[in-house]
Structure formats: structure tokens, C-alpha cells
Amino acid sequence: MANFPIKTNISRHLFRSKCLFLLVFIVSGTPPEDPIKCSSNNSTCTITNSYGMFPDRSVCKAADVSYPTSEQELISIVSMATIAKRKMKVATRFSHSIPKLVCPDGADGLLISTKYLNKILKIDPEAMTITVESGVTLRQIIEEASKAGLALPYTPYWWGLTIGGLMGTGAHGSSLYGKGSSVHDYAVEIRIVSPGKAEDKYAKVRVLNESHQDFQAAKVSLGVLGVISQVTLKLQPLFKRSITYVVKNDSSLADEAISLGRQHEFADIIWYPSQRKAVYRIDDRVPSNTSGNGLYDFIPFRSTLTAELAIVRTAEETQESTNDANGKCIGAKLVTTTLVDTAFGLTNNGILFTGYPVVGFQNRFQSSGTCLDSLQDALITACPWDPRIKGEFFHQTTFTIGLSVVKNFIEDVQKLVDLEPQSLCGLELYNGILMRYVKASSAFLGKQEDSIDFDVSYYRSKDPMTPRLYEDILEEIEQMAVFKYGGLPHWGKNRNIAFDGAIKKYKNAKKFLKIKEKYDYLGLFSSEWTNQILGLKGEVSIVKDGCALEGLCICSQDSHCAPSNDYLCRPGKIYTDARVCTRVSSKIRGSSASSDEL
Fold first, then answer.
1. What is the pLDDT of residues 316-357, one digit of tens each?
2. Are residues 264 and 251 part of one domain?
């Protein structure tokens, strides 16, 4: 204990260094690698996600990969694979989905990359629509629409997603207005290529719109219906928004979270539970003649010096190995205070933040990701999560809870923090819990009611058998959300346990499965993983020693945790039906601190 102040000072210095760096460093970095890697003769390929690791740490293999450049080429590829009865999976340019949706079964499978299906096909100013190929990125859509004086009203905040990928997983922004914040609910036509029969020349192109019931299945397809080739989206006239962030104590969060989304069109909340704070985004449309040309370049999505990222990761690893909760809380406060003070990357004129409100056009506010604006620079800078460097490596638990029960969920999390005030400082290092509003969707696998989506990111060890600080609190929140409150998983995120029984929560699941059987009658776009999450075969859980640490299972015996590190399987503290890996000895340093000391 004698050297604790020294380590705390080191943590303070390292995280202050990171915060200051994020403010000033805005030059280009190294582009992400292609998630698909093949042998020199393209005979053996592997695929992963942008984080370099699937939840179960498996390696997904395929025999080869095809890169179609047009719908006609795509039809030919699907036809030949159907004749050969080869398993197929669709891969995107950046592969940002965390689960194994891109994994074909078996090493003889085929990957179909949409990397070069990247063309804007048509913008119709009169109809206010844009038609694009499925590999077009969100950034391309935003930029091209704005040139025509149009805008996609609601989008995810990260622009490194393709339209096919974000629709396939139900990605969204934050709003309860209009049709809501899910991008798929602004699709008016989808072209999808599926396996066909002999009379179809073994590939069938279906053109779907609101007049087809199948359209509601194709809008969130998980990639099991075939390959989306084109999407037409309904746009709106380009508009301006006004954004103000307001910081409050979280004592009234449970009530205010329900009302905020009805009061402000683009509202969201960033919650720092261990600091007992919530940051409310007051965000609405304003008249187009309102003065302001603001820009949102979200700081955590900017390029970062890889040397700085390595230092910060080392500090966090040290805090984990020494059970230094106090150090995490000091670092979290420095990071979050800096982000709040700099408006998270908002600027009034594209350069400086001079005060609220920040007013600007929709295309400059809705999404960002400048770490993808990259030059080859030998990995001097990169996106913070780039797997080639020592940087961020984390779990992400994302679930959607209905507005009808969300108050009770928030209050339960607050009760856990009352018991363990420092328990969620670790996730505050990753900017806390992002709460976004999502409206009920007509898509069969879309949101079932008006809800709040909770994004929770937190430390993941490179060693799958190593527990994390306050392992039990994080697991209890996850199980409480998914099982006690019936939370829906984000299809493109999460650890395995979030998908346990999830398909039963969708009232139109049987309709979706019936359409799946019709479109992919040979099961060529199915895999062991998709069959598991759709409840068709086997279970998502993987039961083995240490499985609960990675969210592969819910512990039922001590060996599923880390008994050699004093982590044993115990009931939850608030949600006693939960089974979590709890540290039973060796007090965590700083755990007796009150919330006032954070």
C-alpha cells in the first residue's frame, strides 16, 4: 500500500495526457486493415471483425472470397455457389459487427465482400430518395445526399458502416420522432439476391417494397436471406439542428429518461453512474436560416497516437492486475471531464468550441469517424481499437429496454452503485453508458416497442481466463437487462449470453423464419451461429472453464469463473436470480470510497 499514491499520480498523468492529446491531434492516421485475409493464391481465407476478435475468440475460415463490382457479378457468384451447394456469408468493408454473423460454416465456405459494391446509383431530388449499392458507407450517403440538399434524418453516430451491414443488424441513431431512429425504417426498396432453383438459373433477385410482407423480414435480415445488392432510402430536405449538452446529477435520471425523448427530437443521454452524473443532449431542428455552421467530430472517433494508446492500455492493465479501483475512478473523472468541457468534439465553426448552443447542418452533425480519414503512416496513429496496435480492447454489451420498464432498470443499476460506488468507473473510461431512443419498428426483427438502447463498453483482458474488476456488477447488469427486463440484444454487438432465448421476444419471429426458409431453401446463408441465435439448432452458450468471464455462459459452478483468482459463482446483489462471478476475498483497493470522493 505504500506506493499507492505514486501509482495514482501515474494514472492521473497518463489519463490527463490522453485527454489533452485527443483535443489537439486531428491529422490522418492509418486506415484499418481489410478484415479478410487470404493466402497468396486466395485458396484459404480467414475473417474477423474490426476489433480483431469474436466473442468466443474463434477464427472463422473460408475457402475463398469474391469481390463483386455489380449486381450482375453478384448474381453470377450466388448462382455458382448454389449449384455447388457452398455455404456463403456476406462481409463488409470494415466488419464492425461483434458477433459471428460473417462466419460461413466450414473451411470450404465462400465469403462475398461488398467492398466494391460501393456506388451511389441514383439521387431523385423530386421523390427525395437515394439508391445505393449495399457496400456504400453511411458517410457516402450523408455526403452525397447533402450535395442534393437532402438528408437521411436519423443515423448511427459512427460513419464507418455500410448500408447493407447497418440494415442487416438494425443499427440506429436516437429519436422517437417520425418513424424513429432505425435506418431500416427509411428504406423504401431493397434488392436482394438469394439462391434460386434451376428455373431461376440458381440465383433469384427479389425487389421488395412496402407492398410485400417479405419486406419486413429483409429490413433486418442478419444476412440469412441472401445478399442485399441495392437499397433505396427516403430522405428529407437538408435541415439544421441546435445542440446543447446539460450535465446533471443522476438522481432524477429514471424519470427524466422517459420524458426527454418525447421533448427533443435527437435527444440522447450519456450516463456516468459511478460519478452520479448524466449528460443530457438537448438537440432539435431549427429554421434553416438560423446562424451557425457547427461540426461534430466526436473525439473518441478521431485518430490517436498509437504510443499514447499503448500507455493508456498499460495503465488500465496495471489497474486491473492490482485491483486498483481508485485509479480507474481518477482516470474516468479526468476523461469524462475533458470530454464534457470540450463538448465531446462539437465546434461552432468547424475549428473551435465557443459555447452552446451549437448550430449546424444535419450532414455535419449526425455522424463522424475521422480516424478512417487515413494515410499509410506505419501505424503512428490509428483508430483506438485497431487490433494491430496495443490499444483499446473491450467487451460491448448493448441492449434495448422498453420505456414501460426502463425506470425500474435504471433504479436497479443505481442500487448496485450504492452498494459498490466505484464499480462502474471502468466503463466510464469508455465514456460511460450511452442511452439512445429507438421507436417500435415494423421490421420482424426490429424493436418491439418504444425503447431506450443502452451501449455499455468495458475492459476486456487479452487473457480469456483473467477476470476484470467488479466482474460481478457488470454481469449482473447484463443479466438483469436481458432477463429481468426482457431487453432485446443489438444484433451487431454483445457477448453470447445476450442472445440466449432472444428470438422468443420477437412477436413476428415465426414469420421471419418462414421467409428465411423460402429465400434460402438450401440453408446456404445459414451457419451454426445464426441457427443458434434464431433458435433453430443448439444453444448460444458455450460451457467450459472460465466461460462466464467472456460472457460465453452464465456461471452455474465456480469453475465457470476464476476460482484461482478468488472469483466464484454467486447470486446477484440486487437481481438475485442472476449468477455472477464474484470476488470473495482480497479487498479491492479504494472500494470503500464514497461517491463524493469520485
1. 999 999 999 999 999 999 999 999 999 999 999 999 999 999
2. yes
Give the domain range for residue 373: 240-499+541-583
| Predicted pLDDT at 379 | 86
Report the C-alpha gap between 214 and 393 in whole angstroms: 38
CA–CA–CA angle 239, 279, 448 (5° rounding): 70
Residue-wise DSSP of 274-338: GGTEEEEEEEEEE-TTSS---EE--GGGS-EEHHHHHHHHHHHHHHHHTTBHHHHHHHHHHHHHH
The answer as to whether 518 is a domain residue is no
Closest CA to 190 of 152, 156, 233, 236: 233
d(CA 472, CA 476) in angstroms, rounded, equals 6
The domain boundary, picked from 181, 216, 238, lies at 238
Q: Do 264 and 210 reside in the same domain of the chain? A: no
Phi/psi at 275 (nearest 5 deg)?
A: -90, -5
SS3 591: coil
Give how far the C-alpha of residue 257 lies from the chain's centroid of Cα atoms, to the nearest Å: 21
CA separation for the pair 427, 456 (Å, rounded): 7
Question: Same structural domain for residues 275 and 180?
Answer: no
Distance CA 450, CA 262 (A): 11
Q: Are residues 194 and 126 in the same domain?
A: yes
Q: Is residue 50 part of a domain?
A: no
Alpha carbon distance 524, 88 (integer Å): 6
Angle between helices 4-24 and 306-321 (to 10 degrees): 150
With respect to residue 289, please indicate whether it lies within any of the assigned structural domains: yes
Residues 327 and 468 placed together within one structural domain of the fold: yes
pTM value is 0.94
